[in-house]
Amino acid sequence: MIKAALSVLLVLVAMSSAKYIPKSGKRIPQTLSRGWGDQLIWAQTYEEALYWARSRNKPLMVLFHLEDCPHSLELRKVFSEDNGIQRMLDEEFIVLNLMYETTDKHLSPDGQYVPRIIFVDPTMTVRADIVGRYSNRMYAYEPLDIKLFKSNMEKAKKLLKSEL
């Protein structure tokens, strides 16, 4: 009896730690992911991301980071390993990650720093009301803020449904 229970427990643990695989099957990793989610389909440019968000009626998540920034690297590790985040981004969002600033000043309402995550709804409105926990870097997240980030993703989805 105990051996059977342990076997079931081992199977459940193994399944829960498996890497997220999209419904459509494993995808070839994109170089555009830059390690933030190899199974996600990332837009190449801000303009393309806005087009996809509008045509698919999905919120856009814009992630600003730098390859050699220690804060970006720490967040990327947690972000890419969280199956819940990866699944929600794959199914409910348009995603774009940038290592440079855009000409759209709405994407840097409180300055240009990394990592910074901004949500944009399909009407091309930057959601300045979806913020992290820091008053001096309102759109910054750290690895310990993953729960808040998930909550903000849910908020972006809920605002999409209630306002559009």
Indicate the topology:
Blueprint (H helix, E strand, L loop, with lengths): L1 H15 L29 H11 L3 E5 L5 H12 L1 H10 L1 E5 L17 E5 L25 H18 L1
Parallel strand pairs: 1-2
Antiparallel strand pairs: 1-3
> Percent helix among the residues?
40-55%
Principal-axis shape equals: globular
Q: Which residue ranges are poorly predicted, with pLDDT under 50 across at least 5 consecutive positions?
A: 8-15
Compute the number of helices. 5
Structure description:
By secondary structure, the protein is mainly alpha-helical. Helix content is 40%, strand content 9%. It is built from five helices and three strands; from the N terminus they run ααβααββα. It has helices spanning 2-16, 46-56, 70-81, 83-92, 146-163; strands at 60-64, 94-98, 116-120. A three-stranded mixed sheet has the order 2-1-3. It is globular and about 55 Å long. The model is unreliable at 8-15 (pLDDT under 50).
Summarize the entry for a quick read:
It is built from 5 helices and 3 strands. It has 164 residues and is mainly alpha-helical.
Please describe the structure with a list of short key phrases separated by commas or semicolons.
5 helices, mainly alpha, 164 residues, 3 strands
